[in-house]
Design goal:
This protein has about 200 residues and is an alpha+beta fold. It has three helices and eleven strands; from the N terminus they run H-E-E-H-H-E-E-E-E-E-E-E-E-E. The protein has a six-stranded antiparallel sheet with strand order 5-6-10-9-8-7.
């Protein structure tokens, strides 16, 4: 048995201990509450991104390199409604079964609300039962980006527009064939163009 005396912590040691715990708790809270929009997106060093352009009828036109659209929050606020800004620029989420496209079954393509980049074709849309428009594939892989999202105490994959970094939604691995993916998007992030 050890006969050494246990001394109480000095005031400065207790303070350091408590500050350490408070800092650790703050770091955990911050990591849980972080939004995908605060992540660093991969960009080319010259500011160009590669996109596939599509006509409004869904016809593939060309692949091109184009400058990434980078606007200030003030500029985005002038262009977007408050709800559009909160979802596309701050990675908020619309309530299930409230968006204008979750139950839309018309033929057409879905473009980005912020920059009109082609994102999804109605041919890949399916009823996921979630209350959000869902697709099993983007119109072109180049036109969307996937970003690790560790918000809300879980790890998910956020989806954004390659051209302007607008937050679109998340992708999950519980979709139908042939990809088994479910791109679960916010209606507010999309603009539907009906095929003529």
């Amino acid at each position: 048995m050890d006969n050494r005396t246990v001394r109480p912590l000095s005031r400065s040691t207790r303070r350091a201990f408590l500050l350490g715990w408070a800092s650790a708790a703050g770091a955990v809270a911050t990591s849980v509450l972080i939004r995908p929009s605060s992540f660093t997106f991969a960009r080319s060093s010259d500011g160009l991104v590669t996109l596939v352009r599509f006509s409004d009828n869904g016809e593939r036109l060309q692949t091109e390199q184009t400058p990434k659209i980078v606007n200030s929050d003030a500029d985005w606020r002038k262009q977007l409604t408050t709800n559009e800004f909160d979802i596309t620029r701050r990675a908020d989420t619309e309530m299930a079964f409230t968006g204008k496209y979750w139950n839309l079954h018309e033929a057409g393509i879905y473009r980005c609300t912020c920059c009109a980049n082609a994102l999804f074709d109605s041919k890949t849309k399916f009823d996921s039962g979630t209350g959000w428009p869902s697709f099993y594939a983007p119109i072109a892989r180049e036109n969307v980006r996937e970003i690790r999202d560790a918000s809300l105490g879980m790890t998910r994959t956020a989806v954004s527009c390659t051209e302007c970094d607008a937050h679109l939604g998340h992708v999950f691995d519980d979709g139908p064939r042939p990809t088994y993916l479910r791109y679960c998007m916010n209606s507010v992030s999309l603009r539907f163009i009906k095929k003529a």
